[in-house]
From TrEMBL:
Keyword rRNA-binding set for record: no
Gene source species: Dermatophagoides pteronyssinus (European house dust mite)
Domain Phospholipid/glycerol acyltransferase span(s) in chain numbering: 109-233
Source lineage: Eukaryota, Metazoa, Ecdysozoa, Arthropoda, Chelicerata
Gene Ontology MF annotations: acyltransferase activity
InterPro entries, sorted: Plipid/glycerol_acylTrfase
PANTHER family, per the entry: MONOACYLGLYCEROL_DIACYLGLYCEROL O-ACYLTRANSFERASE, TRANSMEMBRANE PROTEIN 68
Gene designation per UniProt: LOC113791427
Cellular component annotations (GO), alphabetically ordered: membrane
A Pfam family per the record: Acyltransferase
Bilayer-spanning residue ranges: 21-47
Superkingdom in the source lineage: Eukaryota
Name of the protein in question: Transmembrane protein 68-like
Keywords for this protein: Membrane, Transmembrane, Transmembrane helix
Length: 324
């Protein structure tokens, strides 16, 4: 009996150690996945760049730059331009890759797509999430359906990533001045931008507050071109990736304000439900000032967020929505 009791106690101890080890292994694996998932998107961008370089090397099509490295407008082509048409096939392939990833991983869908004009120009104003994967999904969706150029304005620091220049240029993702953007719109192209930029990506949170800091560039563009502004918001975009502070938040903000160096580590990448909502186009009378246009756009964006997003956001609820 004594031997049986010793064996039984040892087995219990082994079971306890095994369960303990399993729980620790699951937790550690989950943390590693959450911290490294952003690199999967980076690798996907490099894969897309590799496809484009392969296309350029084998078929030797014309290659063009939307903007020079110094940000000045070098050449903006119309939708029927020969150089642009040469890159249509690989660009559609890239768009298909993003469509597949968005549909499988996030159940991605768009509500109000009919509000995006099929012809002519408009300015789509986005809320900037931690990692704007939703922006790439909507670019891919619009490009796949309309097969027209769709310019996206980004922070210049993104263009400094080695190996991305061809990918960014072919998909018309570029930095640009107000004059560049006016030229793009006057040529009949669509324009997408996020007034909050990297500041909103780093310092907004699960409450989805807008951090535009009087950045009225988009309003000046709209004032000069007289095209409608369309507010766009993606539900659960902040639940897809969160911002892990490397340094105290106030210090990160001071460094960014002074040196424009982003210091943050995105984590997450969970298969949460992502739904992009296209708001009603905002048409404004000629007498509206730039500040009034910006304030009206911010108000409409806040209304979109309030109507469609539970605040504060929840990763768990976003996961439930994905699989419900």
């Amino acid at each position: 009996m004594l031997i049986d009791s010793i064996i039984f106690n040892n087995l219990q101890q082994i079971d306890f150690i095994g369960i303990n080890y399993l729980i620790k292994w699951i937790i550690i694996s989950f943390i590693i996945i959450m911290l490294t998932t952003p690199f999967i998107y980076v690798l996907m961008f490099y894969l897309c760049s590799l496809i484009l370089h392969f296309y350029r090397l084998i078929l030797n099509p014309y290659y063009y730059h939307c903007f020079m490295d110094n940000g000045e407008n070098q050449s903006v082509f119309n939708n029927d331009d020969e150089h642009y048409q040469q890159w249509m096939r690989p660009a559609l392939l890239i768009a298909k890759i993003f469509n597949i990833v968005g549909r499988i991983w996030h159940g991605y869908e768009i509500i109000g797509y009919e509000r995006i004009p099929k012809n002519g120009s408009a300015i789509l104003v986005f809320y900037h999430s931690t990692l704007p994967n939703d922006i790439y999904y909507i670019i891919a969706k619009i490009f796949s359906i309309q097969k027209r150029k769709f310019y996206t304005i980004i922070d210049r620091i993104v263009t400094m990533v080695p190996g991305w220049s061809l990918f960014l240029n072919v998909l018309c993702i570029t930095p640009g001045t107000i004059d560049d953007c006016v030229d793009i719109i006057n040529r009949g192209n669509m324009l997408l931008l996020a007034p909050g930029g990297l500041r909103e990506a780093m310092f907004s949170d699960e409450n989805y507050q807008l951090i535009w800091n009087n950045r009225y560039g988009f309003a000046r563009i709209a004032r000069r071109t007289n095209v409608p502004i369309i507010p766009v918001f993606t539900k659960n975009s902040r639940e897809s990736f969160r911002c892990l502070p490397i340094l105290p938040r106030w210090l990160c903000r001071q460094i960014y304000d002074r040196y424009k160096i982003p210091i943050f580590w995105p984590f997450g990448g969970l298969p949460v439900k992502l739904t992009t909502i296209i708001g009603e186009p905002i048409h404004f009378p000629p007498e509206m000032t730039v500040a009034e246009i910006a304030e009206l756009t911010a108000k409409k964006m806040e209304e979109l967020i309030e109507r469609h997003q539970t605040r504060p956001g929840s990763m768990w609820k976003a996961l439930q929505q994905r699989f419900s």
